[in-house]
Specification:
about 130 residues, alpha/beta, Glutaredoxin, 5-stranded mixed β-sheet, 5 strands
Length: about 130
């Protein structure tokens, strides 16, 4: 039981990147795609996405099997200018070379979110 708990903690806190450059390096090494979630303070939709996706250990563990996650916050982090953000949150899915494959502006319920990122992965995994 303790080993399972320690493994889950390791998965939750590993393979996150603090920058796009770091994510690209990790994604190439791990043969994964990159997920960049951009949010802002006091955004109710950002908080909802956190609650249903990013605060859920099972969903995060599932995502981290296929994606390197980068979480950026407007006003706190340096958000690259190539992200054309219109709505918060916005989730970008990228190849392991940093090319944007798809984006999801706004909030999406958890089942739709997981289905969306799963479909993108199925389409892009052949390029990893």
């Amino acid at each position: 039981m303790i080993r399972v708990l320690l493994a889950l903690i390791f998965v939750l806190f590993s393979l996150n990147a603090s920058s796009i450059d770091e994510a690209v390096k990790l994604a190439k090494k791990e043969h994964k795609l990159i997920m960049v979630e951009v949010s802002k303070k006091n955004c109710p939709y950002c908080k909802a996405l956190d609650r249903v996706i990013f605060d859920n250990p099972e969903r995060i563990a599932k995502i981290k099997q296929k994606y390197i996650i980068v979480r950026l916050k407007k006003g706190r982090d340096n958000i690259p200018s190539f992200f054309k953000i219109k709505y918060y949150p916005t989730t970008y899915l990228m190849k392991n070379d940093g090319t944007i494959v798809d984006e999801m502006p706004g909030y999406m319920k958890s089942s739709d979110f997981m289905e969306f990122i799963g479909e993108v992965y199925r389409q892009e995994k052949k390029f990893l």
